[in-house]
Amino acid sequence: MNTGILIAVLIYEIGIILGVGLWIARREAKHPKREGDFALAGRDLPVPVVAITLALTVLGTAHILGVFEMAWVFGAAAVWFSIAHVILLVLVCLSTGLWVRRLGLTTVPEILDMLYGRGTRLLVSCTMAGVIFGILTIETQGIGIIISSMTGWTIKNGAVVGGILGIFYVVLAGMKEIGWLNLVNAVVMYVGLILATIFLAFRLPGGNYSSVAEYYTSSGNDFMLSIYGTPEIFFAFAVGSVIAVVFSQSINQMLMQPCMSAASEKTIRKALWIAAPLNGMFGVFAVVIGLTAKTIPEFAALGPKVAATTMLINYLPTWLAAVLLASFLAAILSTFAMTSLAPATIVTIDIYKNLYRPNASEAELTKVMRILIVGLAIVAMSVAAFLPPILAAMNWLFSWLVPVFWVVVFGLYWKRSSAVAVTTLIAAWTANSLWSFTSLPTLLNMQDGLNPYVTLAVTLFVSILGNLLVKGKPGFFSSTEYQARLKDQSTTNASA
Amino acid sequence: MFWSIFFNSLILIFAIIIVGWGISRLFDNRSTTNKTTETE
């Protein structure tokens, strides 16, 4: 246990979260309340804040602890986990994110209401809130692991301390607080990463990374130094990551909410140029750290899960190790904050307001969201103690959103039939659960963990066949309802 | 080793963004949605 590092990290986190949170909350208190102030930052976030929030929302436990581990097995090709997120951000900033901003939505299920009616909206609301809550429990576990590596505490205690920090990351001022905190943390993270890479090189023989390259070349594993790996690794891991990440995340409320909060569509388009490199290049540093840890016998002996973090704590000066761990923790906390805000927004808008309180005021909705954020975070802290295996859990969870993406795309561009939409969703969700919880993969002589492919195949089969056979309304973008909606939006914007 | 992974990834990332941007522009030009409909 290194008390100096622990104290420095906690002081940084508490200071920055309370400082930024209270500053924004005080500033906001002076302005009159606008619709969507808490959940959507009044829809006026600028380019840097939208960009960094998009980049950090999908940069959590899997990016940090996962890539260290993946580099151990796949070498530099592990960077494809980050590249998959670059493709995801391209899709979000140039299509899905623009659609939700243009239509003036607050939650993703609202688009399902527009396309297929209230029933589909409620079905997707419950599922999407549940899926994001599942991701929240995994992020809570990740925070527990990082704090446990710094303190020697149990992962459970680490998750409780981290969870409390995570609640304060969002509960004081909502989306605006997350955005501005992310901006500060991203700067600290990149300064920390660059300095860590330089200091790490100084500790290696020759003062650079040539000894790492030599280790892999001399053992006949040159492929581990190439980001394209071997053809097998490329097709199984790289292409697999792209499919799993892109189709499951591109319509997720977590990523759509920063887009809905952007000042304009142009803001989202511009944000891509910052968000994608910021997220993608993180993978480069994580891969280099992971590859280096494997070449040093004292850390290699610890195994892929803890080798890299232990190396950073032992090799870097105390102050730099503290900066780096604080920024890793901040990156996971930002994902924690978005994964608690997103389901809280869905439950408040799609269920509480939609079904029970259509005339609820902004103050009442904010209060409900705050209560839900705290409640969800507390439940996540208790669930995290059971430590579900991270990769298997992610695979199953993300696959629930694959059919939602296709149902939205087909509804916008091709045909709208609620019967086909509901059948597609239920068929894909059933296939996903059968794949995880029965011996179906063994019976078919296939691997576990192929959930994204299975749900993608079932989704495309059922929805394409269904839309070919069943009559429905034309795609939303070519309908008169769309034109009317745009007219409404521009009137609202002009009067705002 | 570091620089080769760094530059290869950087080039790949910007290539993906530029291709994505190009496809989106192409799509925009063909689509009925024009710039006046953007929520500014």
What does this structure look like?
The complex is a heterodimer of chains A (496) and B (40). With 496 residues, chain A is mainly α. Chain A has 23 helices and two strands. Chain A has a two-stranded antiparallel ribbon. In chain A, α3 (47-57) packs antiparallel against α12 (253-260) and α5 (80-102) runs antiparallel to α13. Chain B contains one helix and no strands. Chain B is rod-shaped. Residues 32-40 of chain B have low confidence and may be disordered. Chains A and B meet through α5, α10, α13 and α23 of A and α1 of B.
User: In angstroms, what is the radius of gyration of chain B?
Assistant: 16 Å
Amount of helix of chain A: over 70%
Runs of chain B in which pLDDT lies below 50 for 5 or more consecutive residues are: 32-40
Helix and strand string of chain A, N-terminal first? HHHHHHHHHHHHHHHHHHHEHHHEH
| Biggest interface, residues from each chain | A-B, 43 and 24 residues
What is the tally of beta strands of chain A?
2
Oligomer: heterodimer
| Largest sheet entry of chain A | 2 strands, antiparallel
Mean residue pLDDT of chain B: 79
The average pLDDT score of chain A comes to 89
Order of strands in the sheet with most strands of chain A: 1-2
Descriptive labels:
heterodimer, A: 496 residues, mainly alpha, 2 strands, 1% strand, globular, B: 40 residues, 1 helix, 72% helix, disordered C terminus
What is this structure, in a nutshell?
Chain A is mainly alpha-helical and 496 residues long. Chain A is built from 23 helices and two strands.
Secondary structure blueprint with pairings:
The complex is a heterodimer of chains A (496) and B (40).
Chain A: H1 3-30, H2 37-40, H3 47-57, H4 61-74, H5 80-102, H6 109-116, H7 118-151, H8 155-171, H9 174-203, H10 210-218, H11 231-249, H12 253-260, H13 265-295, H14 297-300, H15 307-315, H16 318-356, H17 362-384, H18 390-399, H19 402-413, E1 415-416, H20 418-437, H21 440-443, H22 451-469, E2 473-474, H23 480-495
Antiparallel strand pairs in A: 1-2
Chain B: H1 2-30
